[in-house]
Design goal:
This protein is α/β, with parallel strands linked by helices. It has two domains: 213 residues, no CATH class; 208 residues, Rossmann fold, CATH 3.40.50.11350. The chain contains 19 helices and ten strands. Strand 6, helix 16 and strand 7 form a beta-alpha-beta unit. Helix 1 runs antiparallel to helix 2, helix 3 crosses helix 13 and helix 12 packs across helix 18. 50% of the residues are buried.
Length: 569
């Protein structure tokens, strides 16, 4: 489910809002009749609107949620996340003092996450504060940035003045989940190499996130007058790609021969799924020593490449100091780097408070059907429900149709909200019908919700990216997660959530896999590239890469090393 897409828009369709409203009324007997009436009305309105409004567009759902939240006067915000005491700075991960109104999510999101399993290491905190100072000193609008751009524009070699500030420019590519994991990896690379991260912000990426870095001159957006034109068209065949420069003998991957004056003013790093063998030399130690002499690196990538950095002697020791728990990398850096813009945060919080906040447990289900691994919808639904029974994810249903629990029994059972994130509506419809036609075993209210379903994936449209980002964050607020193996959308959700998800296995040969799913042993995303890099000098640690690959395969994250197939969504 990445960038979303298609002409059909979905509705968020609550199944049990009226029941939840009644439960809320029972719990609030001290509020008086007016308060009870208000709550019943608030929880009945979404159901009535959807009943008589037909298949409303997804945008209408976000807007309806906004109106209902405003009408509630704060009453809808009655959930565990509202409790005081959340650490707004994530243990020092974020710097204090940013403008709260400019980026509401930065300080509000800690109140929504249910899990924060890892505190940042003191070394990571120092590294982040050093980076922030460097970004403020070297970012757009500063004299060092202006000098570096002038040298780049003139085509001349780097000067000793340029050595003060080196840059890595990230170029967005592929779907939103891919982009977030790629950007996170590139930021870590900037931390490791003392570079300043700048983002080539395309129209469909603009407005999704707040500026992540505090202080003056701290924008991460690359100015539009940057002298390298048409960066979005750079690719594996570009003359300035590192692989082509090596093949054409225009740069030597010999650290003893490379100087700031001998290397080009910029090098394009093509690290996307279709990279060639010469491009893979980026992951070699000697090549990193050469690239360190280049003032400007331009990076295009569409997967998570952090595991490959661990396999490099140049970075391994520093990475272990930064992240004593290896599975915490994407979790901590994701929470540091990504803060939805106010417009997207409004979509997230309105939907959450209208449909999910009242539940005592929230279950996120992310379903992605890949074009290279499809099975019929009936079979996919069978796989989902078999996984749920195996891992006890969705509430069991009561087989006794005549069994009706007393009011006391229902009120004592835990209420649950199931959020479905999928391009298709079929799975939502079937799961919703299950809990409409059958009571949950042991009682308790069950609501099933889907913010959007767009049927097919379309790239390059900001509204689709906004909704996709909203759903990634709604999933990340879950207590329990079921995601699809090999899905970058699922990777990003579980990393932000701080959860090891249950992962649906990828079908093979058009058949439902057995077992249907497994529990991940790590919240870290997988590295979607074969570990076959041949290096000169100090070689890449193939044992480290192989360990990661085997772990991903063993836990059923669905990685298949098939050349020429895009294993991304």
């Amino acid at each position: 489910m990445m960038d979303r897409g298609g002409s059909k828009m979905a509705e968020g369709r609550p199944v049990a809002d009226a029941a939840w409203g009644a439960g809320a009324a029972r719990r609030s007997h001290g509020m008086g009749r007016a308060g009870v009436l208000l709550i019943v009305c608030l929880f009945t309105l979404p159901f009535m609107a959807l009943l008589f409004g037909g298949r409303a567009g997804a945008l209408a759902v976000w807007q309806n949620a906004a109106k209902l939240t405003a009408m509630g006067g704060g009453l809808l915000n009655v959930s565990r996340q509202s409790a005081a005491g959340a650490d707004e700075l994530f243990g020092g991960l974020l710097s204090p003092g940013s403008d709260r109104r400019a980026c509401l999510s930065r300080y509000q999101s800690p109140h929504y996450y249910k899990h924060s399993p890892y505190a940042p290491s003191p070394h990571l905190l120092r590294k982040l504060r050093d980076y922030e100072a460097r970004h403020s000193r070297c970012g757009p609008g500063t004299p060092p940035y202006a000098r570096s751009v002038d040298h780049l524009r003139s085509g001349g070699s780097s000067s000793t003045e340029d050595a003060e500030c080196n840059y890595v420019v990230w170029i967005p590519y592929n779907g939103l989940g891919n982009r977030m994991l790629s950007l996170l990896s590139t930021f870590l690379y900037a931390l490791l190499t003392d570079r300043v991260l700048l983002v080539h912000s395309t129209d469909d990426f603009t407005g999704l996130f707040c500026e992540p870095f505090p202080g003056a001159n701290a924008t991460w957006v690359l100015p539009r007058d940057f002298p390298v034109a048409d960066m979005s068209w750079l690719g594996v065949g570009s003359n300035q790609s590192y692989g082509n420069l090596l093949d054409g003998k225009k740069i030597a991957n010999d650290p003893a021969k490379a100087t700031a004056q001998s290397v080009p003013p910029y090098v394009y790093l093509h690290l996307a799924h279709d990279l060639r063998r010469s491009d893979r030399l980026f992951y070699c130690n000697d090549d990193q020593l050469v690239l360190a002499k280049v003032n400007w690196l331009l990076v295009q990538n569409d997967f998570y490449f952090v595991p490959a950095l661990y396999a490099m002697a140049e970075f391994e020791g520093e990475l272990r100091r930064l992240f004593p728990a290896k599975e915490s990398v994407a979790h901590l850096l994701g929470r540091y780097l990504f803060h939805p813009s106010n417009s997207v945060w409004g979509m997230i919080t309105r939907y959450y408070h209208t449909y999910m906040a009242q539940a005592e447990e929230r279950i996120g289900v992310q379903i992605r059907m890949f074009s290279w691994a499809t099975i019929p919808v009936d079979d996919m639904y069978t796989q989902i429900m078999a996984c749920s029974r195996q891992e006890h994810i969705l509430p069991d249903i009561d087989g006794d149709e005549a069994n009706t629990k007393t009011t006391a029994a229902r009120s004592s059972a835990k209420s649950k909200a199931i959020l479905i994130a999928s391009l298709q509506a079929d799975y939502y419809d079937r799961i919703k019908s299950t809990y409409y036609e059958h009571a949950a075993k042991g009682g308790g209210m069950v609501g099933v919700f889907q913010p959007s379903h767009e049927e097919r994936q379309i790239m390059g449209q900001r509204p689709h990216n906004q909704k996709a980002l909203a759903e990634i964050y709604l999933l990340s607020f879950s207590d329990v997660l079921l995601t699809t193996g090999a899905s970058t959308f699922g990777y990003m959700s579980s990393s932000l959530a701080g959860l090891r998800p249950t992962m649906l296995m990828i079908p093979e040969d058009g058949k439902v896999p057995e077992p249907p799913c497994v529990r991940a042993v790590s919240m870290e995303p997988c590295f979607h590239m074969t570990p076959d890099v041949e290096c000169q000098g100090k070689a890449v640690n193939k044992e480290e890469l192989s360990r990661h690959v085997n772990e991903c395969e063993d836990v059923g994250k669905g990685i298949k090393w098939i050349k020429g197939i895009k294993l991304f969504d």
